[in-house]
Automatic annotation (TrEMBL):
All copies of domain TLDc, residue ranges: 126-303
Classification via InterPro entries: TLDc_dom
Keyword Signal: yes
Coiled coil: none
Keywords (A to Z) from UniProt: Signal
Signal peptide stretch: 1-19
Name listed for the protein in its UniProt record: TLDc domain-containing protein
Keyword Signal attributed: yes
Length: 306
């Protein structure tokens, strides 16, 4: 282990500070289970914590772009049978992941510990991971006319079940970075929305001309549905507020929140209502219930090729 400590200390001192703007390990290899999350520890402290934990095989390190503090996540995730990857770094707009110890198998990593090519990063969705390929293909049918894989890649900026059920993190990571797609799971139901403009946190409505809502699995079973804006120039396509997660329409057509009791709902007004739903009335199309609590939420932003 001594050589690892020497290597890490050398690397830590030599990495240019202005190049160190990490995203999360989930852009590439990401764990099914986080052993421990440590807030407000620097990068070297994260490395030392993993080396000291006998269960830890790898770690991810992320600095907040807009708030003080840093987050270190320890996991058992790693690539099996690849000793040459020990103490190697994976970069994506800065440092994101390091495997420090060998693993016997890659079962603790989503996707079997394989790198995910940039054209297929929506395939790394935890929500869609256990679904058939049809889910991903049908979601791309909605998205590709606006953002094809030849133009860039979808990169996750928020995952509720690993980043925390706190929309402060959503706004820190996803505001101001361009178009996004939000994927929501409530039990077996899968749905969400696309925003053609950046999210904001100033608690107001704003236009998003190409935005839409979608459902993959709803009260009708697997039945992919796209719900477009009634008027593309509607000034209330999106609601951006620090107190809320991704929120669509003036109804709200889709409102997401976390609370001890179910508070999320869908009430069509700005987007076309689904079958058997009426404008201005609560709608159970997405989840079979008028009020619901998310099982998980993911948000991906589109990063154009440079």
């Amino acid at each position: 282990m001594a050589w690892q400590g020497t290597f890490i200390a050398f690397l830590y001192l030599c990495l240019p500070a202005n190049s160190f703007h990490p995203f999360t390990v989930k852009d590439y290899i990401y764990p099914r289970h986080i052993l421990r999350r440590i807030e407000k520890v620097d990068w070297l402290g994260c490395i030392q914590a993993c080396l000291a934990d006998t269960s830890c095989r790898s770690y991810s390190f992320r600095s907040s772009r807009t708030a003080l503090g840093e987050t270190c996540s320890l996991s058992e995730c790693g690539i099996s049978g690849n000793n040459d990857r020990e103490a190697k770094l994976v970069f994506a707009s800065g440092f994101v992941f390091q495997q420090l110890k060998t693993v016997q198998n890659s079962l603790d990593c989503q996707g079997g510990g394989q790198y995910i090519h940039k054209e297929h990063r929506l395939a790394q969705s935890v929500i869609l991971h256990d679904k058939t390929k049809t889910y991903l293909d049908d979601l791309h049918i909605f998205l590709d006319p606006l953002h094809s894989k030849e133009q860039g890649a979808w990169i996750r900026c928020y995952h509720a079940n690993s980043d925390g059920r706190n929309f402060t993190v959503f706004h820190e990571n996803c505001d101001g970075i361009g178009p996004t797609v939000t994927i929501v799971r409530v039990r077996n139901y899968v749905f969400g929305g696309y925003s053609s403009v950046s999210w904001k946190d100033d608690c107001r409505f704003y236009k998003s001309p190409k935005s839409f809502l979608f459902s993959l699995y709803n009260v009708g079973g697997y039945s992919p549905t796209q719900l477009l804006l009634i008027d593309e120039q509607d000034q209330a396509a999106l609601w951006g507020c620090s107190r809320n997660g991704p929120t669509f329409g003036h109804g709200f057509d889709l409102s997401l929140s976390y609370a001890d009791v179910p508070q999320c709902y869908a009430r069509p007004k700005t987007y076309a209502p689904p079958d058997n739903c009426n404008v201005g009335k609560s709608c159970n199309f997405f989840t079979g219930q008028q009020l619901f609590s998310p099982s998980d939420i993911e948000v991906f932003y589109f990063k154009p090729n440079t």
